[in-house]
């Protein structure tokens, strides 16, 4: 089975460092996987997922560590994963974080099915790869499972031992190796894709890392929202929190005045009146935030136009392109080209 779905090579941004620690030369492994010797593990370079999985399998063999995917995950930096990495920690609750991740996943890799299921008080987060053989993708699946386990438990503020990790492949090392590194029970050969099962009550817990992982240029500190938090009478603080809430909602595609007002603990009309007193409105604040973020993305990173549109909360790239023409008098692509020439 050939898995030709595109994946950002940045998914393996930690591989060169881990390879150096293990004394493993990457160049021969890249050649064996059909990848260029000068492959860049940063930015927007895309490869077929089959090649990425082949590289990981070769690395596991050469390092003599079948469960090396768990160590790769431990060294991963969400900020190096583009919009999907930012989205994972952007929600106010774990549920919102997982919804945002699903929306932004196409920027990181194609052919991924993500599902969140709830039944009898338990939740299951499922991640499956289209056109992928579980054994060929074993190291990748190990890494994804470990990365997501760490993210979910840190967001919810719980211990990993309260989760169960289901992996689609056969175990390549003793079970205790996996369970010691993950701190959770592991079940192998569980079928189609990865599954993490946990208490469904975690889904609506506040995100303890809210604001910790944000796109470039939007590094506002997480702030408690609501009139009692001391922001309602502080114009700058109120607008800063609104922008933070807008950034969070944009990742999951759920931007709305009602939702933002609810987060602030006020009625929508109350929020609109407060903003009118500042000669602005919720719609104007969203538009201004989107404009500023669009300029930053187009000038400073390599996200495709469609990914920028999703990160800004647009339902379709064409809506973003029309808005950008209104702001700048030219298309996003023309702006990016001009920025590259000027920069």
TrEMBL record:
Coiled-coil stretches: none
Q: Which domain of life is it from?
A: Bacteria
Q: List each copy of the HTH araC/xylS-type domain by range.
A: 236-338
Task: Output the PROSITE patterns linked to this UniProt entry.
Answer: HTH_ARAC_FAMILY_2
Q: Which InterPro entries match?
A: AraC-type_N (IPR032687), Homeodomain-like_sf (IPR009057), HTH_AraC (IPR018060), Tscrpt_reg_AraC-type_HTH (IPR020449)
Q: Name one GO cellular component term.
A: cytosol
Q: Does the keyword Transcription apply?
A: yes
This entry's Gene Ontology molecular function terms read: DNA-binding transcription factor activity; transcription cis-regulatory region binding
Keywords on record: DNA-binding, Transcription, Transcription regulation
Q: This protein is called what?
A: AraC family transcriptional regulator
